[in-house]
TrEMBL record:
It catalyses: glycyl-tRNA(Ala) + H2O = tRNA(Ala) + glycine + H(+); a D-aminoacyl-tRNA + H2O = a tRNA + a D-alpha-amino acid + H(+). NCBIfam families: D-aminoacyl-tRNA deacylase. The keyword RNA-binding applies. Its EC number is 3.1.1.96. GO terms for cellular component: cytoplasm. It is found in: Cytoplasm. Residues 156-221 are annotated as: Disordered. The keyword Endoplasmic reticulum does not apply. This is D-aminoacyl-tRNA deacylase. Residues 170-181, 192-203 have a biased composition (Basic and acidic residues). Belongs to the DTD family. Keywords: Cytoplasm, Hydrolase, RNA-binding, tRNA-binding.
């Protein structure tokens, strides 16, 4: 007889977002088109019953700073939606919080509509206050929508907010590191950075520095 621990699926509840780079996206309710964007990001956002403002802040920061666009010279994965003044269409999507019970979807992990509505509105306000409010578009919360997405690439990124309690000191440290990275990117590669890269190459000639534009070659919090 075999003994051992029972394998239990991870049911930790976190905020989830599916971010798609698009050339255009529209939201229609019934026969009426209620909103549309040109080039930018279409975000499907799923809020869980356990989400807090910390989760919202993390997701908003990532959405607006993901480097999914090319720069003016055509170099890929180097600019964010804010860098390029592109639009963002955000659509509430409770089905992202689905837990399958056999083949039947269960949505009890999603935040109830009466709580999710003001919480979702606060996320949109956060985006608008961080970026340009006129470039943040929205679907119609709680409505049956037809979302038409013209994915560019295709490029699709899944975001999940961190789980567990957040240490304020660690969070502050991560924020400062992120700010330093953004400043360094705006100034271009430093001499010391190039020297370190050359030193690593001499030490390990087989090590790869990452292809140009490869997002896996850099780490961000």
């Amino acid at each position: 007889m075999r003994t051992g621990k029972l394998c239990v699926p991870n049911t930790t509840k976190t905020m989830k977002a599916i971010v798609q780079r698009v050339t255009k996206a529209t939201v229609t309710v019934g026969e009426e088109q209620i909103t549309s964007i040109g080039r930018g990001l279409c975000v499907l956002l799923g809020i869980s019953v356990e989400d807090t403002q910390k989760d919202a802040e993390y997701i908003v920061r990532k959405i607006l700073n993901l480097r999914l666009f090319e720069d003016e010279t055509g170099r890929a994965w180097s600019k964010s939606v804010m860098d390029r003044d592109f639009e963002v269409l955000c659509v509430s999507q409770f089905t992202l919080q689905c837990i399958l019970k056999g083949n039947k979807p269960d949505f009890h992990s999603a935040m109830p509509a009466e709580l999710a509505r003001p919480f979702y509105s606060s996320i949109l306000e956060n985006m608008r206050s961080t970026y340009k409010p006129e470039l943040i578009k929205d679907g119609l919360f709680g409505a049956k929508m037809q979302v038409h997405i013209q994915n560019d690439g295709p490029v699709t990124i899944e975001l999940i907010s961190p789980t567990g309690p957040v240490d304020p000191k660690q969070l502050s440290k991560q924020e400062k590191q992120q700010q330093r990275k953004e400043k360094m990117r705006s100034k271009g590669p430093s001499e010391s950075g190039r020297e370190k890269g050359a030193l690593r190459s001499r030490q390990d000639p087989n090590a790869s520095s990452g292809a140009e534009g490869d997002v896996s070659s850099e780490r961000e919090p």
